[in-house]
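Minutes, project check-in

Agenda point 3 was the complex the collaborators sent over. CS summarized: two entities, 654 residues total, and the question is how they sit relative to each other. Sequences were read into the notes so everyone works from the same version.
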Amino acid sequence: MAGKAQVDPPGGYEAAANAQRLHRNWLLSLPAIVLLLIGASGPLLIVLVYSFLHPGDYGGVIWKPTLDAWFKIFFSVDIFDETVHLADAHLSIFWRSVKLSLLTTLITFGFGFPTAYFIATRPKSQRAAWLFLITIPFWTNLLIRTFAIMEVIRNEGIINTWAIRLGLIDQPIQMLYTEGAVLLGMAYVYLPLMVLPLYAAIDRFDFHLLEAGYDLYASRWQVFRRIVLPLVSPGIVAGSILVFVPSLGAYVTPRVLGGGKKMMIGNFIELQFGQGQNWPLGASLSMLLLIVVAVALLVYVRTISRDRADA
Amino acid sequence: MQIRKMALAGAALLALATSANAEGELNIYNWGNYTSPELIKKFEETYNVKVTITDYDSNTTALTKIEAGGHGFDIVVPSANYVPIFVDKGLLMESRPDQMENFKNVSARWRDVPWDPGRHFTVPWQWGSTGMAVNKTAYAGDPNTSAIFLDPPAELVGKVNVVPEMNDIMGLAIMYFGGEPCTEDKAVLKKVRDQLMAAKPKWLSIGYGTTDKLSNNEMMASVNWNGSTFRARLANPNVVYGYPKEGYVMWMDSVAILKDAKNVENAKLFMNFIMDPENAAMISAFARYANGIDGSEAFMPEDMKTAPEINVPAEFADKGKFLPTCSPAARELYTAIWTELQK
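CS then shared the predicted structure for the full assembly.
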């Protein structure tokens, strides 16, 4: 048996070393993998399982499988005439969430791109200071920032008070409790998440390419569209994902600034786990949200990478 | 049974005898902004116990967290319609507060209550009503009707808030149409749904924070709790409280010991402590609700003794109804209406 150690390993020493390295790398990443499995996949699995069970009488679940919760997302039995129809209440809540999240992404891009461009074109010594300014809002809790916005736009808030004092208006304008207020709040809260990846992409951008473009008689728009956008697209993708995904699940902002008259998907899920006490429906809604996000991301990343391959 | 009673009495005596030295901790799980710091300080100093308070914002939050286990709480303060759920799920200890020394102070009307017959599990913390808060500079008419939010008068259109408490709102709307809270009667519910849907465009918002927003004229009317309206009136004298004559919602939050409590003796001391009139008055002085302990009025702040929000006027005394624990079927109907309302 001892002689066996003398025999060359199959595939030679190099392959053996590679295999060993691979083995070691796996071992090194094991804690992270275990943590992910337990911390991320575990709870998700519970949510998934719960979405196929019956709701308990007062919260919780009854361990009997059913597709009820999934059915109820899309179809509702009218509580009065008992006809089955599309669950328009659920669908309009979903649509509102998607719409507001897309708009938030667009707005943060509109404000974020010039900001990131500005920072990336400052002298190197100043950039850190500008980036530092961008991160300052993160020092404050989300809830407090949301209430700060409320203070600015409410009827007796800063804007209305001053507008009346300056004689611009005589009645306060109702800004709080509108979809516009929700949009403002979300754009404000998520703007840094757009600026930072955009900055990272623009920072790597070689500005000599701009000169080359102009030398070849490209217009400013053409330079932007054909040179800048494709090269910073990884930053745009990353920023959009970072803004769109949390916007879709936003809970605090619609509740505080939206006045609660119109729910977003996050509030709707909370209702099922809270006063509605229908955990399976809440679980299936959460899973659906996850699926929508995953599919949207896949499509998005695919499209962008194909665009780049074409370019 | 007799032996158990004697053992209990013995334990109570022992607890009393050593009370000044009873050391340890007590973990209270209560609604936010609801526990008087002075009361806690007095309890800590009297019994040399370190009290920790954790907040929750709804009965369902409390129920879910306690059911999940590992919470470390000794005391919880559920609302009347949730006490039977807690008991049915076996989460509460049968601590027999009815046999405690200070139980004699509990008002006769709160001694034998439907949600805890004979008070084997809970003692009163605070009780109140859900009615209407109206700023009389905006609307000078009668505030004693649920029409304030179900059919807002022209002066209040776009200025009414509704608190996002499904059971309270459904209860008020159902009583407005002559039904019983928790009804499954579809004829009544259809009227309720249609009325709510028609009224919603006339609302300002569906949210909490009513005390502040009524105080600073941010909202001119709201479905609101009596104590919150009282606090708003102290800040803004134009705010009045209305008891809907069609029927208003009454509630009581009660203190209970959890079955898996670690500091049972301290929790029992606390139960007995808050049934003392002077201590109960401290609870009320802080959160501005009535407490259900006879004789506590004498220790209450002057402004509470006459407050119409706390002392129900005689003509509305029989219009209030406690929300029972709704059946799962009723709750499913209500959730569907509630969702449609906020779609």
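Noted in discussion: Residues 1-8, 10-22 of chain B have pLDDT under 50 and may be disordered.
Follow-up: revisit at the next meeting once the mutant set is ready.
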